[in-house]
Amino acid sequence: MLSRVAERIYWFARYLERVESMARLIQVYTKMLSDLPRDSGISWHNLVIASGSRAEFERRFTVQDEKRVVRFLLEDLSNPGSMMSSLRMVKENIRTTRDVLPPETWEMVNEFRYFVSENVHLGINRRNRHAFLDEVIGKCQQINGLMADTMRRDTAYHFLRLGRYLERADMTLRTLEAGAWMLGDFIEDDSLHAGDVVWSSVLRTLDAMMPFRRTMRVALNGEDAAQFLLEDTLFPRSVMCCLNQMMESGQKIPGSPEGCPGLDSVLAKIEKGVDYSDPAALLKHFDVLQRDLGHMHGCIAETWFHAH
Amino acid sequence: MSVKESGSIDWSQYSAGAFYDEMITPKGNPRKACKAIAKHIASLSGEELEARRIAAENTVRDMGVSFTVYSDGENIDRVWPFDLIPRVIDADEWERTATGLKQRLRALNCFIDDVYHEQKIIKDGLLPEYLIKESKNFRPECVGVNPPQGVWAHICGCDLVRDSDGKFYVLEDNLRVPSGVAYMLENREVSKRVLPEFFETNNILPVDTYPRKLLETLISVSPRETRQPVIVLLTPGIYNSAYFEHAFLAQQLGIELVEGSDLFVDTDDCVYMKTIGGLERVDVIYRRIDDLFLDPEVFIEDSVLGAKGLMRAWQAGNVALVNAPGAGVADDKVIYAYVPQMVEYYLGEKAILPNVKTYLCEDPKQREYVLEHIAELVVKPANESGGYGMLVGPHASKKDHEAFRKLVQENPRNYIAQPTLALSTTPVITGPGSAEPRHLDLRPFVLQGSKLDVTTGGLTRVALKKGSLVVNSSQGGGSKDTWIVGAPKKVTAKTTGKGGAK
After folding, report:
1. Domain Circularly permuted ATP-grasp type, which positions (chain B) (predicted)?
2. H/E segment holding residue B448
3. Residues 6 or more apart from A73 whose CB is under 8 A from it?
């Protein structure tokens, strides 16, 4: 497989995962705000933090109202982190790799892109936002399902997995981080059971509510939620589980006998854990892990994309 | 005007005037091969037709069939323009045309091989020597090279037109990097989805064997004798107007889509591609970039589209380039005029497909005629493609005529002239329930490896503006699916007794 093609497949998967993540994030955040009184002090800005485009937003806007934030995150093509921008990159990357993916993927991505550009206005107002974002998430799952069901487990498939799980692990970390920030907004007064609301929305963003309950068998709380989303080995959106999948795929790609480069040290840090009850330590832990994921991307690129 | 009260198409009201219409006779009756199809179209209400038209539009969009145009320094992806009504050709007529195309390509291949070896055709006095020497597409680097299987012209996209007599003429041969075949295949996919019942009741011959045959052609010219040679399609990249086709074909053939920077020619004069596991030897390169960009070592020095050393590897016989470098020498429009004679010279056969009458400005007598009749003629430069730098006499001003007279006199070798053809027409949907005649051409694709093959039909391009002769998609042209229609499918009942004819 050509290095250039491997790199594009990898990015195709990352951007597709990003589209889905953004839809989930906005979906759950909207629901959460409906449960909180208007003066709860929780602002839409946390969503900007979770999306990872904080600097870009602050450079351009001072007001952080719902409409501005949602537009910025959904349809703003000048924001490279917006859903539309990610979707554009999905298309750009598949355009140059059509020859290694199932043919229907190309068609589905095209349909998807037209659907979003024609309907994205529905996502701006709360009235139709839910239905629109649900459809977006569904389409991402459809594309992933198609590839899971029809693709040979060849090198291209494993590069897809590398991209998808790296992006997913990153998203889980960012969602956790946003949750921790949000709690900071409440610290003054917790009569609203804000902790409940925040942590349940973090788990819901990642579709982890039920798995959390059945696995941890405790009442909802931040420490256990964080531990679950970092350390659980079986839940597909936990960071640990994502890393394990990357390990598996890395071993099947020629050129790196020890598996996925740069992965071991991250695994070790997660296994070691942190004092989950200490908010400051936790935030630092998230930060370190995010940097490690960035480093891993560098190793992957070095090993497979920029060789020769 | 061809709208009935009910809103469906009424062929008796349809008229192409003096032009040969490929579907409807001057009396308003469908031609033989189109009978069932025209009748079926007329049976659809205006609403139904409109619904099918919209369905086709959406299908093309979702399938992502597009082409790239440059505008204001930007690349814009445009949706491929598709007209619902198919272009129909009788299977028997096609059979004869296909035989003619194969014959033509055999002769062209002999010619190219001769040009780069003994040049017998010049020694025998059939072709003046300066024609080759001065041809822009003659490549001295190719002299004496023996490409695998002796094939130079592997893929050819001939442009065919019908004149007012209803006969096919060859307008151009296109031996460099002809494009359009992906659209031919995608057009069929669209019509199968939106006109499914037509395929049940008519014997429409399939087109989808092309990718398989193309792959066979590519495999057959591999210099390494192996059942599974490594084949790549070399594209200039996403900014090329035909990138869609490059990606499509790579997918259909299961070959690697590469850019120049993915290739590497080592000191052993073999071509390798850069893979995640290291270098892998390449046997056949289906290149979709022009000769001059292929190899900065030999041609344009700062070309980033090709790879250093490709020519070296090809000359050493370690890789097949498809089409071979230098094959474009036969694309010269002056040389085109000699093709029917080449058929006789190399094959000892009479040319089956006629050329369009061509005046060579180099010849004093013919030049005199051209200068005198320039207002009726089409004047073309010998080595341009895509319709650039030509004069359409009847549509041009006196000033233009004068300018071209001057050009022809200054550089007669570089110009040819042809009569302005009365291009045939076929109906195009122009509104709900209405169809009008529009001009069209046809580009079949001919393959030549260890065997010869022709597409079933080809890509039909059609002008969408009334009276226009411009069929190029970049200039507002559209396309149609091309149906080669055979004798009706015979439903033969194998069993006797129950379930027989009703």
Report:
1. 86-463
2. strand B445-448
3. A22, A25, A26, A47, A48, A51, A53, A79, A81, A82, A83
**CATH classification (class only), B359-419:** alpha beta
Contacts of A266 (CB under 8 A, 6+ apart): A243, A289, A292, A293, A296
Which one is predicted more confidently, A217 or B158? B158
**In the numeric block, which tokens belong to residue B33?**
């091969």
Q: Does B279 sit within 8 Å of A308, measured CB to CB?
A: yes
B67 lies within 8 A of chain A by CB: no
Q: Where are the alpha helices (DSSP H) in B254-391?
A: 291-294, 310-315, 333-336, 339-342, 364-372
- Please state, in angstroms and as integers, the Cα–Cα distance from residue B448 to each residue in A122, B109, B250, following that order: 54, 9, 19
**Chain A closest-CA separation from residue B248 CA (Å):** 7
User: What is the Cα–Cα distance from B403 to B297, expressed in whole angstroms?
Assistant: 39
Do B224-318 and B359-419 agree at the fold level? no
Residue contacts between A and B (CB atoms, under 8 Å) = 68
Cis bond before residue B203 (omega within 30° of 0): no
Is the Cβ–Cβ distance between B314 and B145 less than 8 Å? yes
The domain segmentation of chain B, as residue ranges, is 224-318, 359-419
Closest-CA residue to B377 (of B419, B421, B333, B422): B419
Q: Is the pLDDT of residue B496 over 70?
A: no
Pull the structure tokens for residue B332.
Answer: 């010269």
Count of H-run helices and E-run strands, chain B:
15, 23
Burial of B406-416, coded b for 16+ CB within 10 Å and e otherwise, reads ebbeeebbbbb
Tell me how far apart the alpha carbons of residues B14 and B434 are, in angstroms, rounded to a whole number.
Answer: 9
Q: Angle B371-B372-B376 (CA atoms, 0-180°, nearest 5)?
A: 95
B289 with B236: CB under 8 angstroms? yes
CB contact, 8 Å: B274 with chain A? yes
Interval B38-93: pLDDT, tens: 999 999 999 999 999 999 999 998 888 888 776 666 667 788 899 999 999 999 99
pLDDT of res. B428: 96
Say if residue A8 is exposed, middle or buried (CB neighbours under 10 Å; 0-12, 13-18, 19+): buried
How far is CA A278 from its chain centroid?
24
- Structure tokens that stand for A187 in this block: 């610290």
Q: How far apart are CA B135 and CA B142, in angstroms?
A: 14
CA atoms within a 13 Å half-sphere pointing along the CA-CB vector of B167: 10
**Burial annotation B68-89 (CB, 10 A radius, 16+ → b, else e):** beeeeeeeeeeebbbbbbbbbb
| B155, burial (CB in 10 Å: exposed 0-12, middle 13-18, buried 19+) | buried
Assembly ipTM: 0.72
Helices A83-95 and A103-124 cross at an angle (nearest 10°) of 170
Tell the CATH topology of B224-318. Answer: Rossmann fold (3.40.50)
- Dihedral, B430, B435, B439, B441 alpha carbons, nearest 10: 100
Using alpha carbons only, give the angle B260, A95, A4 rounded to the nearest 5 degrees: 40
Residue with tokens 């298309």: A91
Q: Find all residues with CB under 8 Å of B89, minimum gap 6, and list them.
A: B22, B33, B457, B482, B483, B484, B485
Extract the runs of DSSP E, i.e. beta strands, from B40-188. 66-71, 74-79, 82-90, 155-157, 159-162, 168-172
**Six token digits for residue B479:** 């396309």
Tell me the residues of chain B between 226 and 265 that have a Cβ less than 8 Å away from chain A: 238, 243, 247-248, 250-251, 254-259, 261-262, 264
Q: Residue holding tokens 């289906």?
A: B286
Contact B64 A255 (CB under 8 A): no
Q: Given a cut of 50, is residue B501 above it in pLDDT?
A: no
Could you report the per-residue pLDDT of A208-239, keeping only the tens digit for each?
Answer: 999 998 898 888 888 899 999 999 999 999 99
Residues 6+ apart with CB under 8 A from A207: A24, A237
d(CA A33, CA A304): 44
